[in-house]
Amino acid sequence: MRGHAFDEGPRQRPWKMEGIGKVHFPITTSVPEVQEWFDQGVALLHGFWFYEAERSFRWCVKLDPECAMAYWGLALSVERSEGRGDALLAEAVKRKHKVSERERLWIEAWVDAQAPWLEGRFADQLKLQGPEAEKEHYRGLLERLEHLVLQYPDDLEAKSFYILASLWTGTRVANDALIQQVLAKAPEHPGAHHYRIHNWDDCEEGGVALQSCKVYGRIAPEVGHARHMPGHVYSGLGMWREAAIWMESATRLELRQMRDQNLFPFDYWNYAHNRNYLSYIQEQQGLVAQALVGARTLLASPSNPPRLSKENRDQGDFAPGDYVQGHGMAALVRCLLKFERWEEILREDSIPWPEGGPYEIQRKYAEALAHLGQGDVDKALERAKELGELAQDGEDEYLKGLAKRRFREVDALLDVRMERVLEGLSELETLAREQAENFREEDDPPDDRGVLYGILGELHLELGNPGLSLACFEKHMKLVRNDGFALSGLARAHAALGHKDEATRAWGRLQYVWQHADSGLRWFEAARALGLQSKPIDESPEVQREYDSDALAGEGPLAWEPSAAPTLDALDAEGQHVTLADLRGRNVVLVFYLGGSCVHCVEELAALGARSEEFAALDTTLVAVSADAPDELAKPESFHGLDLRLLSDAKHENARRFRAWDDFEDLALHATLLIDREGRLRWARIGGDPWDDADFLLREIERWGKVSAAIPASSPIEPAASPRAR
């Protein structure tokens, strides 16, 4: 299990997991136990829990290194990231002569679609890039899987993976027919229910998947994505309370799992997306304060620096931004703009804007709207001019396109305010139509501040055009069902047109959707001022449960919190025991390295030690642990004169506790961890290479004191079986 394909991913052995759904995928193996772990891995693949799937398949390889299908499972777990998937598929190809004809077809399906060069073939798709390459991949995979389905009609996994591959290329009705075949034989198949939800998500017929929404969360309650996906469907149907229950339960579940395993938000690929989506659903219920806390909670999470080598960093190479922080920024800016928090947008340090990229565009856009909202046209014009320049400059077409869209919106609004009303309204109509054309694809959740038809409808009301306003709000409602902003607009437009019954019904629906909304929202108050009489009305396909965040507390915490660090008990150069308790009251940079004979390790520690004064200024101690004997610790000349506490862990007991040990290869790993003054684990990077980015470590330690999110305390909880609500 050596090579770059194994340098990332989980390093500790798996455990038998309950609550993930059950499947059976027979394979050839000389070790009967492997079948159990393989089935667990496939169930996790169906739940898109790729990190844990990889752990199960790695254990299969540990137990039976010649199990071809275990390498196939690993390839699917890592997808095609940085060539890892191809390298793992190559291992499956080497061993495919040892398996059944059916298993060979499984391996060849992925080889043919993804990496034909592994068998000496080259395909036209190698010339393709981006979305076209992705479509070609799925087309090739579908052809192979079709053959599997026809050759082995009783293979439910072949049908399930065929459905997955066809979600983005096939038709919904055809996909659903095949899903029904799987469910007829296995009514609780996790993949079939999961893919049925995806199949009908983002379309007007999302209600078709409601039964699977109920079943999937019940049969796989410990899979975060199984709770997340029903929230998608309920959101599409405008069932905001039900959507919030599922999204929040998914968020709490994943945070509980992070806490129990000493993991971080960046270790869970779907967590940030899920929390961003929950904030959006809370916005849709007028729960502004909760939505903003959620956004700032993401921003308060530990940072995940890009994996750039020292040479890359020295050359100033660009690396992708932090995924979790990115979702936090998207949620924060969207909410502040949607609810017109102009003062907060303009207040210094209210929004922790990163430098460059899309953030420069979003900042100028947000500030232009805020100035305009406060009536300061001159400052809005300044920001609009800067947006226009960004739309013309640079080589990145995506960023230029984003800047152009934002500029067009601001410019059109300025036209309306500066008595070029027809020009401004015409451009906003065009922008609204363009947004609507791609709305379903980008509603995941949307980054935009709102539906432009709704913004246009408000302008028409303000200008005394209730008929045009009504048409805009009706279009808004088709895009986002049971939208509070649209319902308020419909009530006011109908009232202005003398349509009392329609206005009353819209007011009743708004009362239901925003029944628990923050007080004082101007859209709600404007509708209330009409004096209409109606009880709250819910126009949803099914009765919804009440959403109460406090009632879901048993599922887990609602914000990531640092957990108590594992026990450290190692020997110093004099043979004296050193523990974290001895260091309490100071931050600790804890480094596990491979000993004084490891050149790269010594270089890493020397680089950190050279910055010891900067760390000391932050009350931080540098501690390095290896398996070297106490009297060998200080031998490397590079350590001489550095302020490093060197400790001995001869039996790797501490390394195992801190996950700086590979259970699959039985060897020590490089690890760099940050522990705060209270002995809590704040950040970790564990893997096959040393980590010597002192600048990042210093920034992260400084950031602990600057976190602005209100993070509620959590208490120990018991695992819950399914989402609950009041």
- CATH architecture classification of one domain: 3-Layer(aba) Sandwich
- CATH C-level class of one domain is Alpha Beta
Helical proportion, percent range: 40-55%
Number of strands: 10
Task: Kindly report the average pLDDT value.
Answer: 90
Judged by helices, strands and strand pairing, the structural class is mainly alpha
The named CATH superfamily of one domain: Glutaredoxin
Q: How much of the sequence is in beta strands?
A: 5-15%
Tell me the Rg in angstroms. 28 Å
CATH topology of one domain: Glutaredoxin
Q: Could you give the distance between the termini?
A: 49 Å
Major pleated sheet: 6 strands, mixed
Strands across the major sheet, in which order?
Answer: 1-10-9-4-5-6
Number of helices: 31
Overall body shape: globular
Contiguous uncertain segments of 5+ residues: 122-128, 308-320, 708-726
